[in-house]
Amino acid sequence: MLKLAKLLHHRGFHVTFVNTEYNHSRLLRTRGDLAGLPSFRFATIPDGMPPSDTDVTQDIPALCESTRRTCLPHFKGLLADLNSTAGLPPVSCIVSDGVMSFTLDAAADLGIPEVLFWTTSACGFLGYMHYRDLINRALEHDVLAALSAILPPVYSIGSLSLLSHNQITDPALKSISSSLWKEETECLRWLDAKQPNSVLYVNFGSITVMTNSQLVEFAWGLANSRKPFLWVIRPDLVAGETAMLPPEFVTETGNRGLLAKWCPQEEVLNHPSVAGFLTHNGWNSTLESICSGVPMICWPFFAEQQTNCKFACDEWGVGMEIDSDVKRDEVEGLVRELMEGGKGEEMRRRAAEWKTMAVEATTAPSGSSVANLDKLVQALLLSPCQ
Predict the structure, then answer these.
(1) Which of 93, 218, 372, 385 is the most buried (most CB within 10 A)?
(2) Which Pfam families does the record match to this protein (predicted)?
């Protein structure tokens, strides 16, 4: 969402980026002052959840219910304040996360257009639309065509990471980031010392949680593979307790493994030493891996991640799935296959092909994502309010 906001600002729009008070306070702790730019400012609304100053992921079902019930009046109040503030242009369009459906009522009250930004994969979103008739045999192009028939118009503008990298040149705008954890950039220096295509990157995202026994199974699977790894372990990765690894594991892997609380993922995935990605298949992580030409070992957790996993493994040829009841022997075997096996080599070849297509789609002037972003700006954001 923040990348899209930066791209729209780059196209000349005044942006007010609205976050929840909880997430904004976490950003302040990890990023420092969020002063923004004269025409790119930050604002907050409460999410209705009990106050907390801990750095943990909120309960997602409870958060969704709370935002649905409580956020609309706060959001309307914020819009009224923006429209009455001297020196600020009136709000002429709302671009909202697709799950923040309460914003539709606010846009209708003001008589302004709204864009719903769905951050899932197209195949995952189509699954939401058709629980009883899941279309699971096509690639993203065909899925987007099906979506267009259901909800026209659909603008495919990914990858926003590549679009932002290619189009945004203002250093101040580039520096605006949304990481909720402090990134440990020293991991990049550690990767610099490794051989090309020798390291497995492990990160289960910002929301996924697991049991302590699952954490231990992953740990010993990585250790027994004897392959170098960079493993991101959030403090709240284990549900209800602090993530703790066996001391024997730390001793065993100290010379070939690096543990971090968070890292600059896009830079890691694009590092030449990284050969594979053990992931939860959240769409951001999946897309960043594809755009970096890195094959995946997939352990989906919730939402549309199972659909992303299926497409990565069965349709796009860039993934291998771990059973939900994870066991160390399976982890070891899949890591070895990815890093040194024939299937792993084929997955790297396919991943490189997808990377080429992603780069072409986000490169001006003929890239499809560039053209679709232009259409979005021209057709909706620059149109007169209806």
Answers:
(1) 218
(2) UDPGT
